[in-house]
Structure formats: structure tokens, C-alpha cells
Write a structure and sequence with these properties.
The structure is a homodimer. Chain A is an all-alpha fold. The first copy, chain A, contains five helices and no strands. Chain A has one domain: lambda repressor-like DNA-binding domains (434 Repressor (Amino-terminal Domain), Orthogonal Bundle), CATH 1.10.260.40. The first copy, chain A, is 57% helix and 0% strand. Chain A starts with 8 loop residues before the first helix and ends in an 11-residue tail after the last helix.
């Protein structure tokens, strides 16, 4: 009955890949990104390993720091249409 | 230094509006949507009032139940391009 089991794993991996890619494109270390976000460096690492079930406010913080929209940060690369 | 303060409030409101709109378009009660998602009815209500800092896995569960993508569920209506 529930659609909840395993929900979010794909999305977690998409978020993980996008955070890592965008951070590297911006030549930011995990520590530098963490500092901007007010998060701990190890937290960024765990997000990039898709280990975290991140909250919407943290996703918004990451998106802002990486200068992309929240939907963009959750969209698999290759399906994003232009504009950054 | 932190960009974290108040982060996610806009996104929470976008999610809230989209969940309510899509649920109503599908003629689902809060209780029916909650049942499909394996969540409590009052939880759906609090999401629709933008009171919740929802986790990515719950966003994914809601998106699946409402038959939209996660990025679409987090995109302000009017900026979504076609396809549902």
C-alpha cells in the first residue's frame, strides 16, 4: 500500500552527484562549501555520498550557495535545460 | 557568513501549494493521500500549511503519489513547462 519504501534513494543520488559536480565546477573544497552553508565539512561529504536524507531547508541552502535553483539541484544532469 | 537563515521558506511554500493543488486536482482527500504515502493525515495538512521542513525521501514519496517528478513538485506553478 505504501509507496514510501526506498523512496528518495534515486533523488539522493542525483542530489549527491549535482552537489559534487557543481562544487568542483566552482572550485570549492567541501570545507569552503560547508563554511558558506553553515554546515560541517563532513556533512557535505555525507551528502555527496548520498548518505543523507537531506531536509528541504538544507537543499535550499546548498542550492543558494551553488547558485542554482532547488529544482535544478534535484534534476539529473543531462535533463537540465540550459540557463544557469 | 551563513546563507542558511530562513533558507527553505520559499521552497516550503512552493511545495505546500503544489501538494494541495495536485492533491485536489486528483480529487484526493488529505487522508487518501496520506494513506498512499504511508504518512499521517495531519502530516499532509502540516505540509500543505508549509509548516514542515520535509526530507528528500518524503518529498520523493509525495511526488510519486501525485505522479509528478521531484523537481516539478518543487517548482512554482506557472514556471513548469508542459508534460505531466
Amino acid at each position: 500500500m505504501s509507496t514510501g519504501k526506498q523512496a528518495g534513494l534515486d533523488e539522493r543520488r542525483i542530489l549527491a552527484g549535482n552537489v559534487r559536480r557543481l562544487r568542483q565546477e566552482r572550485a570549492l573544497s567541501q570545507e569552503a562549501l560547508a563554511e558558506v552553508c553553515g554546515l560541517h565539512r563532513t556533512y557535505i561529504g555525507s551528502v555527496e555520498r548520498a548518505e543523507r536524507n537531506v531536509s528541504l531547508s538544507t537543499i535550499a541552502t546548498l542550492a543558494k550557495a551553488l547558485n542554482v535553483s532547488v529544482p535544478e539541484l534535484l534534476t539529473q544532469k543531462g535533463t537540465v535545460r540550459g540557463k544557469r
